Predict the structure.
Amino acid sequence: VLWLNQELKQQITEILDHKYNALRIRYWQQGERSAWVLEEIGKEKLITAGIVISNKKIEQVKVLVFRESRGWEVRHDFFTNQFKQAAITDDQQLDKTIDNISGATLSVRAVRKLATIALILDQQIQTQNTKQE
């Protein structure tokens, strides 16, 4: 479990453009690899995505539950494969351009935000692990 301090909550809030209320986030970790299950609202309903980070880069993004009536194209590999090997820049942005899907703009935006957050959270736990060693 990663407990969210004020600074981390602020970073997440800035990415989401709305307040993030959770106090902690569960994750799985093995060495330099972590897995996150995160949720964000597309247009009106939550999109649940699983994101695997390995060596500070995205290994895989998978949309686990899609509840919206439109924008379902984000579930397909042609979209999620764009995230492979993406990392985060110093200004908390993805270092790869993710192509939009016509008619699925809000869903694309939600998945992009979740990928960015997963990279930030992974960065946080890897930093904590380095300090503990």
Notes: Residues 105-132 form the longest helix (28 residues). The chain has a mean pLDDT of 95. The chain is about 30% helix and 25% strand. The CA atoms of residues 89 and 116 lie 10 Å apart.
